[in-house]
Amino acid sequence: TSLRASGVTRVVPKAKSAAQILPEASYKVAVLGAAGGIGQPLGLLIKMSPLVSELRLYDIANVKGVAADLSHCNTPSQVMDFTGPAELANCLKGVDVVVIPAGVPRKPGMTRDDLFNINAGIVKSLIEAVADNCPEAFIHIISNPVNSTVPIAAEILKQKGVYNPKKLFGVSTLDVVRANTFVAQKKDLKLIDVDVPVVGGHAGITILPLLSKARPSVTFTDEETEELTKRIQNAGTEVVEAKAGAGSATLSMAYAAARFVESSLRALAGDPDVYECTYVQSELTELPFFASRVKIGKNGVESIISSDLEGVTEYEAKALEALKPELKASIEKGIEFVHKQQ
Ligand code: NAI
Questions:
Q1: How far is 4 from 216, CA to CA, in rounded Å?
Q2: For site-directed labelling of 64, which of 86, 213, 233, 259 has its Cα 20 to 30 A away?
Q3: Does the beta carbon of 60 sit less than 6 angstroms from any atom of ligand 1?
């Protein structure tokens, strides 16, 4: 019998059950900011993963109840709670993946950059602890502005002498999830089949869906391209406005972050076929950080897929040039923040 489990095709004798070929639940995942709007549903989705042995939840408050609640789900992972900086080191020791959704979300009228002053400091202090306690872990940064918080994390890790660019990821999965959904709706396609690469960064015009590279291959009129691109770029604001002061995307974000965690765990488990769009250190353009499709393996980023940027449409080429100054400024702002603190 040939079956596909976790993306790995293996031939197994008939007598063996599917459970025997699944990778063991052996990975430890920490969520920092676990009691928040994203953290709670993300914890739930990670608790559902058959690959996770320990789910460690950290926040500055309210995490005990979240952990008690999740611990009653009869899935393999053990749930542990950690409250406040004194317990952060224990939360992080030995983990394989650290996911960071800690920080404040947007309110109507705010840009992601408006969050910089608060979230930059939060990410800085959390990454210092990551560097001290689990420098080998995959690090997933969700806290906005991702365009700046990832460079901040890189600088802190460099200062601590443990920076591995292959293991630091800005989570831009939600942009892909949204692009897939909106394109499927517009073109009446089966959602499961649609995959749209989204490159650049994770804010406003820096979010660049490459509709010409959508799979399955679809054609769009100029109006459709313009409308879909704008909708994907502003989808976060669509949610912020609908929530009217109660925060930004949390449920779809948790779904997207859980997908990225699952992809990372499959890569760690040896699946040779893991590709995700993510914001990483990159040489794809002249900018030091850039979101694109990457191949993820046991050691993190294995390769950055350059083909998506080849043969793009004129609209996409223009949008790519237009986003660079903003993305560059956001990257520099992050780097400066760390250097200013000395
Ligand atoms: P929230 O306010 O509901 O939750 C944030 C949590 O972080 C709270 O539980 C808070 O106690 C915790 N926190 C604050 N300071 C902390 C610290 N020093 N250490 C540990 N935990 C700390 O916010 P929400 O909606 O969960 O959003 C979190 C972040 O994710 C925001 O920055 C938001 O902009 C960002 N975001 C990113 C997206 C992406 O696509 N990358 C999409 C949506 C939101």
A1: 22
A2: 259
A3: yes
Q: How far apart are CA 224 and CA 187, in angstroms?
A: 10
Task: Return the pLDDT at 23.
Answer: 65
> 148 in ligand 1 pocket by Cβ < 6 Å?
no
Counting from 1 in the atom list of ligand 1, the atom nearest the Cα of 39 is 26
Chain centroid to CA 133: 21
Q: How many CA atoms lie within 13 A of 99 on its CB side?
A: 31
Rg (CA), the chain: 20
Q: What pLDDT does residue 11 have?
A: 45
**pTM of the entire predicted model:** 0.94
Coil vs helix vs strand at 189: coil
Q: Is residue 115 scored above 70 in pLDDT?
A: yes
